[in-house]
Design goal:
The chain has 431 residues and is an alpha+beta fold. The chain has 12 helices and 20 strands.
Length: 431
């Protein structure tokens, strides 16, 4: 996959100095927006130091980036690389502030995008932002680490209260004010036609979310889109430095064959996840977070995906193909695209209640308990939403089981395999 990108930064209408710094390295696939703070010259130092350090660390692991582009290295390895790069930058900025009293208290926000093959990797601290524009959907991939944004996510404040709060620009995390920092990371699929926008809060404070970014784009290329956004921020007040990087993944019309198929497969995977009961009530961003812990696994026809009586740690989602649920030698249900099964393995070590066998060649998404637990431990709000959705999915299945046995008693054991909806399990199974 190739990319077109353009970066711009502007001092704005009220500031004398530009403390933002943008890094735009298409060859490395690295894009960084930093919004410095700490008084005259110090913010500028912190933002530049951070971007330079991140580039140096990523460049030192260029082989890993190339391996991921070739499909050899796991994408999560690059998330850890960005985490390490930003943590290293925070240490260096902090040490520089300790060594020079004039720089005490300097720091910066930091939003990083690393593109490798069909993957995008985000590293993020502060209230600069990363947005994804795909077809008619716009999603903010980063979470602001401000007092009010954190309060809204935890349910301690409504969005309306946050909008009226005088603490909206108080940062809970930033790079360099301490020698350690907590870094958000995200790995996601990038498909041809995607537009990715990195920006400082000099833009985001004047833009009503990702949906307005979509409207302002209006089919513009990266250069014109970047300039349009900076002009809009200045026209609406320009009270802060404004920095924007726009990146366009090469559209399908430019790349023929396999990239088009890859786009379709990637979109299909995300839409399949969004459509299952287990994801009901979750935002697009939350589903994208969960997508990180699902890996694709094919199975040939007649292969056992789960085995009755064995202890497993994985749940499965059928991307395509069909499968049968068996207890002993009896077939009790048929599963098709979008069905999910094995969720109980995410909760405990009880033996599988049934076997699931591929009736045709199948592609599945597999989620392991350990990977899921690690992700949810970093995202408590997502954890609450996910387990509520899991409880609802299991409740629906319990209703189906009761209905199945009631029907079975009345029909002398006949199974309703020919019903219009998935039998027994509402499109899912807890084996």
């Amino acid at each position: 996959m190739s990319y077109q990108a353009y970066a711009g930064t502007d001092v704005g209408l009220e500031r004398e100095h530009n403390e933002d710094f943008v890094l735009h390295d298409e060859e490395l696939g690295l894009f960084v927006v930093c919004d410095g703070m700490g008084g005259h010259a110090c913010g500028e130092v912190a933002s530049r130091m951070t971007a330079d350090c991140i580039k140096r660390v990523v460049h030192s692991q260029r082989g890993m980036v190339e391996a991921l582009s070739a499909g050899v290295a796991p994408p999560n390895a690059l998330a850890e690389l960005l985490r390490h790069a930003i943590e290293t930058a925070s240490q260096e900025v902090y040490q520089a502030s300790v060594a020079d009293t004039k720089k005490r208290g300097m720091g910066t926000t930091c939003t990083v995008l690393l593109l490798a093959g069909r993957f995008g990797v985000m590293g993020h601290v502060g209230d600069s932002q990363l947005h994804l524009l795909r077809d008619e959907t716009a999603v903010q991939l980063s979470h602001d680490h401000t007092f009010t944004a954190e309060a809204v996510r935890r349910g301690a404040m409504t969005p309306e209260q946050a909008a009226q709060s005088s603490h909206g620009n108080v940062l809970m995390r930033c790079v360099g004010t301490r020698d350690t920092v907590q870094v958000d990371t995200l790995v996601f699929d990038v498909v041809p036609g995607d537009v990715l926008v990195l920006c400082s809060d000099g833009l985001s404070q004047y833009i009503e979310g990702a949906d307005e970014l979509m409207r302002l784009r209006g089919g513009r290329g990266p250069k014109d889109f970047t300039r349009t956004l900076i002009t809009a921020a200045n026209a609406r007040g320009g009270s802060d430095n404004i920095s924007v990087i726009c990146v366009l993944a090469t559209p399908p019309a430019v790349q023929q064959g396999a990239p088009v198929e890859a786009r379709a497969a990637s979109l299909e995977t995300l839409e399949t996840l969004r459509g299952i009961h287990l994801m009901e009530g979750l935002s697009v961003h939350e589903v994208m977070l969960l997508r990180q812990v699902f890996r694709e696994q094919p199975y040939p026809a007649s292969a056992f995906i789960t085995v009755e009586g064995e202890v497993g740690t994985e749940m499965f989602v059928l991307l395509d193909g069909s499968a049968e649920v068996r207890r002993g030698k009896e077939r009790v249900a048929s599963l098709g695209r979008g069905a999910h099964f094995g969720e109980m393995a995410l909760l405990n070590d009880r033996p599988r209640a049934a076997s699931v066998v591929a009736a045709t060649a199948c592609r599945t998404l597999v989620c392991d308990r350990a990977a899921l637990s690690a992700l949810l431990s970093e995202h408590p709000t997502l954890s609450a939403h996910f387990f509520r959705a899991l409880a609802c999915a299991l409740s629906l299945r319990l209703d189906d089981i009761y209905s199945f046995y009631d029907t079975g008693v009345k029909a002398a054991g006949e199974v309703v395999a020919g019903s219009g909806r998935p039998t027994l399990f509402h499109g899912s199974h807890g084996s």
